[in-house]
Specification:
single chain; mainly alpha; 96% helix; rod-shaped; t-SNARE coiled-coil homology domain-containing protein
Length: 172
């Protein structure tokens, strides 16, 4: 029976060593988790800042669009007035025609820029959304792994307590 007790004590020492190792790993994991959690917080803050900047850009873009619309309306009014005076001012009409051509060119370029900007803006929003979902998914995974590690550690501690009780019974 002395040899059995010695074997049980050796097993308990091995389990205690493993528990100490697991405890160290859990501490490291907790530290890494806290660091990751802080980084996620920083990312959230930067994401909110970027979202606010995108909102500001969108507002400025809408303002510019409204101003361009007002300019187009004024131009249409001017074009109607030029049409009314067309028979008397042929030379003026030729000048206005050149201006219209340039304006159409600028309008076309602006519309192209507007379409490109809207597409890029949509792409940025999609990328931000995907990145945010990725971070949230990893954050959830880390929380799940942390909970599983704690559960395993508690289970191992319960096993050690059971072995200690059995050892105490054997010693009596």
């Amino acid at each position: 029976m002395g040899e059995d007790l010695q074997i049980v004590l050796e097993q308990i020492n091995k389990i205690n060593t493993r528990l100490d190792s697991i405890d160290g790993k859990v501490d490291t994991f907790d530290s890494n988790f806290d660091s990751l959690d802080a980084k996620v917080g920083t990312f959230d803050s930067k994401f909110d800042s970027l979202d606010a900047k995108v909102g500001t850009f969108d507002s400025k873009f809408d303002s510019l669009d409204a101003r361009v619309g007002a300019f187009e309306s004024k131009f249409d009014s001017l074009d109607a007035r030029v049409g009314a005076f067309e028979s008397k001012f042929d030379s003026l009409d030729a000048g206005v025609g050149a201006f219209e051509s340039k304006f159409d060119s600028y309008e076309s370029r602006f519309k192209s820029f507007e379409q490109t900007t809207k597409k890029e803006f949509s792409n940025i929003q999609l990328k931000i959304k995907n990145l945010h979902e990725f971070v949230e998914m990893n954050h959830t995974l880390i929380k799940t792994n942390h909970a599983m590690t704690i559960k395993h550690l508690k289970s191992t501690q319960n096993d050690v307590q059971l072995i200690k009780k059995q050892t105490e019974k054997m010693q009596k």
